[in-house]
Amino acid sequence: MLSKLNAVQREAASYLDGPLLVLAGAGSGKTRVITHKIAYLVQECGYAARNIAAITFTNKAANEMRERVGTLLPGKDAKGLVVSTFHSLGMNILRAEAGLLGYKPQFSILDSSDSWKILGELTNSGDKQEIRDLQTQISNWKSAFVSPMQAEEQGGNDVEKVQARVYARYQETLRAYQAVDFDDLIHLPVVLFREHPEALERWQHRLHYLLIDEYQDTNDCQYQLTRLLAGKREQFTAVGDDDQAIYAWRGASVENLHNLSNDYPRLRVIKLEQNYRSSQRILTVANHLINHNTKVFEKKLWSDHGIGDPIRIYAARDEDQEAESVVMRLMAHKFEHRTRFADYAILYRSNHLSRAFEEQLRAQRVPYTVSGGTSFFDKAEIKDITSYLRLIANPDDDPAFIRAITTPKRGIGNSTLEKLGSYAGKRKISLFEAAFESPMADELPPRQYEDLMLFCRFISRIEERADKDPCGELLDELLRAINYETWLYDSHESRQADAKWKNVQDFIDWLKRKAEQDEKSLIAMVQTIALINMLDGKNEEQDAVSLSTLHASKGLEFPHVFIIGAEEDILPFRDSDEKGIEEERRLMYVGVTRAQRSLQISYCNRRKRGKDWFACEPSRFIEEMPEDELQYAGGHKEAAPTVTKEEGKNKLANLKAMLNREGTT
Ligand code: ATP
Ligand code: MG
Asked: PANTHER family given for it (predicted)?
């Protein structure tokens, strides 16, 4: 079982005498240790798959892990194995134990735009920054296990006092909606386990061995959850790389790597040093770059793959030309080397950078997928349909109720909703429940009341069948009944409507496939959809170029990688302080180490913001890479000959001077 591992990896995979931390650089086989260890536990040590849980960072990584385990274990042996993200593990725990926390198992999961709306209503504020701060503050409180009451008692400055009051009302609102937010998915299980030892025991009994990937990015809540689940048995393997810690901004703490050795005196640490992923050149560049950070743990990394091609640094004139040149190069490379589209990845710091590349790829008819984007599940039409599904799963979900009842419009306007809302508010019940109470019949004009009841009864009818009838059938019926297609074409320009309707159909097809594959009911599907958050995108199995944020590329690998937009103020992100710069450098390190065989890093000499052009500086991280391994190219669209670094620099200087002149004329 372990023959495909090197000696140190094998030791890590077979070590069962206590808690284990595998601390090692990129591409050294950490994830491979996890997948092989799962197979080893089942086939050699008599563990039942259902007693093992592997926890990864994104749904995409979880899917990939499931696949990798699938090739090692026959299907029947893998039955019941938990491979999930922290969030979906938390969701499953909550669903099973909802009653203990006063929730019903069909609770809704709100995404950050839903909670944004709620906070906006609670504060009655249009100030985006204020709401953003509130969101961050509430999230921090939750991660630190500070209840609304404690937050109020803590006091602090005036702003914090107000925030604490909103926090309390926010939690009340979530309860009323029978909803939880993303933070709750991890926070609430910890609360549950602390308050209900019998529930904890149930889960400890269920999960005997835990394996956690990307450990460097766990936050305090996740750390506590792991700790509780591991319990006295202390049987777990965590793997991680402090150089790839890129979620400090979301409260993740590399400290958790240190905490492990404090909390578990028996902890064994194993280091891996051989990289099996990348060419030597790619590794040299990566090592050089990350050496500019202060070291937490000393690590070595080497590869016996060939030296490989130099890293190409490409200077583009502007955004459009960068996209054009990357896509052209990609296509020529593919043609020459007879590779697949899926062998290529285009990675970037921020979502908006993908736009020019998506345009180019579309123009050249190159298939691509976007992950880490807000792209698919945040599209209005997808959220419209999802609001119906959420409402069917949980009629008390007020945000879903409001969206569904008003899209498509069905004669129910603001005044009806306001009356309904104020009645529901007084009675402290959901809008849906309020609609069925008799006083509403007098409050509303007969016509509006009738429309309202029509809608609510329709939702009830589908709800009754949601657990039994096949998901696909229900979805088709729902779409027909709400006349969504007609509404789309009536209220949008036809090309736009075409695109939207196609998205809806894709979505429905995907839901049907997924429900069938995982044998899930509509209700279970709804909670799954909610979890496909901004980190994941839609998972499609086709030969396509991957467009991804650097954050979402973690753990993945591609033969050929393009990192784009490598400019100051983008990567590193603008206004990063010293700590921020180190995190940005780790992000660049993550990007570089995704590449197996070739890597191109590009930047633009100028960018348009609004109507004006601005000159851009190449990222300092390029400067920090060893010159001998780099090959400079680009500068102009017409001439892209390879030049030395010195020439490249001169050229760059000339170009900048030129652009500055251009900018002033
Ligand atoms: P990252 O830090 O980026 O998540 P990782 O440490 O998890 O990287 P893996 O993804 O597990 O590394 O491994 C990198 C690549 O090297 C994979 O393609 C894996 O299959 C391969 N690999 C790892 N160990 C071995 C080995 N002993 N023999 C052959 N290939 C290996
Ligand atoms: Mg990995």
From this structure: ATP-DEPENDENT DNA HELICASE REP, UVRD / RECB / PCRA DNA HELICASE FAMILY MEMBER
Active-site amino acid positions: 30-31, 213-214, 244, 594
Neighbours of 21 (CB within 10 A): 22
Both structure tokens of 243 = 């150089």
- How far is it, in rounded angstroms, from Cα 536 to Cα 371? 6
Atom of ligand 1 nearest to the CA of 594: 3
Closest CA to 15 of 53, 58, 44, 57: 44
ipTM rounded to 2 decimals: 0.99
Which residue's C-alpha comes closest to atom 4 of ligand 1? 555
Nearest alpha carbon, ligand 1 atom 14: 27
* 277 has binding-site annotation: yes
Paired sense of beta strands 236-240 and 209-212, if any: parallel
Cα separation values, 664 from 612, 658, 661, Å: 10, 10, 5
Token pair listed for 238: 């965590």
Question: pLDDT tens for residues 310-324?
Answer: 999 999 999 999 999
277 lines ligand 1 (CB under 6 A): yes
Name the residue among 164, 150, 224 with its Cα closest to residue 193.
224
DSSP state of 545: E
Kindly compute the dihedral angle of the four CA atoms of residues 96, 64, 242, 36, in this order, to the nearest 10 degrees: 90
Supply the pLDDT for residue 473: 83
Give the closest residue to 165 by CA, choosing from 183, 141, 144.
141
286 φ/ψ angles, rounded to the nearest 5 degrees: -65, -45
Please list the alpha-helical segments (H only) found in 183-269: 184-195, 197-206, 220-230, 255-263
- Whole-number Å distance, alpha carbon 33 to ligand 1 midpoint, is 8
Q: How far is the CA of 121 from the centre of ligand 2 (A)?
A: 41
- One DSSP character per residue, 259-292 reads HHHHH-TT-EEEEE-B--SS-HHHHHHHHHHHTT
d(CA 663, CA 658): 8
Q: How far is it, in rounded angstroms, from Cα 61 to Cα 83? A: 10
Indicate the pTM of the whole model: 0.80
User: Which has more pLDDT, 248 or 48?
Assistant: 48
Helix (H) or strand (E) holding 366: none
Report d(CA 424, CA 445) in Å as an integer: 17
Distances from the Cα of 628 to the Cα of 24, 286, 312, 659, angstroms: 26, 13, 11, 29
Angle between the N-to-C axes of helices 446-465 and 398-406, in degrees from 0 to 180, rounded to the nearest 10: 120
Report the pLDDT averaged over residues 429-456: 91
Structure tokens at 114: 């839903």
Q: Which long-range contacts (CB under 8 A, 24 or more apart) does 653-658 make?
A: 655/315, 655/605, 656/605, 656/615
DSSP 208: -
Structure tokens given for 488? 């789309």
What are the two backbone dihedrals, phi and then psi, of residue 639, each rounded to the nearest 5 degrees?
A: -105, 115
Single out the residue of 58, 608, 637 nearest to residue 352, CA to CA.
608
Rounded distance, CA 522 to CA 228, Å? 31
Q: Which of 102, 246, 124 is nearest to 176 (CA)?
A: 102
The verdict on the CB of residue 37 being under 6 Å from ligand 1 is no
Q: Contact at 8 Å (CB) between 78 and 144?
A: no
Is 31's C-beta closer than 6 angstroms to any atom of ligand 1?
yes
Q: Whose CA is nearest to atom 11 of ligand 1?
A: 29
- 31 labeled part of a ligand binding site: yes
For the stretch 416-438, pLDDT in tens is 888 888 888 788 888 999 999 98
Contacts of 205 (CB under 8 A, 6+ apart): none
Higher confidence at residue 536 or residue 639?
Answer: 536
